Amino acid sequence: xxxxxxxxxxxxxxxxxxxxxxxxxxxxxxxxxxxxxxxxxxxxxxxxxxxxxxxxxxxxxxxxxxxxxxxxxxxxxxxxxxxxxxxxxxxxxxxxxxxxxxxxxxxxxxxxxxxxxxxxxxxxxxxxxxxxxxxxxxxxxxxxxxxxxxxxxxxxxxxxxxxxxxxxxxxxxxxxxxxxxxxxxxxxxxxxxxxxxxxxxxxxxxxxxxxx
Length: 212
What we know:
Strand content: 15-25%
């Protein structure tokens, strides 16, 4: 089965539970101040060129968990990187569940950090952790190979122009637009690989699945 065929199967099989599974009583993570996460497989969506939301790339910047400068602009500036952005917190059980899938996708795609020579980059956005310490422990535990911004208050999430929960995974094209999203826990490694390969190859299913 081709990558695009697998993508169609994954999109058809996904359980659309993002809205129903979010913690009750929590504000929208992108605009509010409360913690929130989705507890089951996420809502997968892809977007055709004209429907892709442009990210305020320069606003997705700050310091890494290690204190080094880091931002999405490092990827978009290369002009040819597709970037996977994963929003996560060490306190979030679905984030722990999906971490091995993200690492496996990173390895399978031959990805690198934003601004590297790889044509696919991974960038984490760590949010709602009280300090970098627990997030760094999470990264060590799951052997996360890509860097993460430390965004305790979630301010950078506003740059994506759409509601996000924790976890969320976005595929940003080389023009800095959201080409695909998983709002909630990543269903599988293959789901993300297929989404990225479709965007990297210049394609799109052109249809959104659910409200993602």
